[in-house]
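Posting this for the archive.
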Amino acid sequence: MCVYNLPTDIASQPLNAAMLAAASPDEQKQMIGERLFPLVSKLQPKLAGKITGMLLEMDNAELLMLLDSNEALQAKVEEAIAVSGVCGWVNGCGCESVCLSRIFEVCLLEITCVCTYI
């Protein structure tokens, strides 16, 4: 019986071309996503899942560049937030506010929640 010592933290293992070449396209996205999500979580913990999903729509070569460059990742995360219209501010009730910065050219984080769950 062969026992493999698999790492408990897959995200900490670097990806290389051979690893990706041996995987199916879906597995490639999974491998990249497992490494991308923790990095995005550090930048936007409340929106990490949504942003990571948005980023995974990109080409794998571009995604690998994001894994290697914190500056490029930060820029893409900010772009994803701007495109989605969600600024990441979560009200006390747990609902996310819609960022009105594209309309008013300021982020209105001071607005109060008007949802029905208050």
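The first strand starts at residue 86 and ends at 90. Helices lie at 17-21, 25-43, 48-55, 60-68, 70-84, 101-104.
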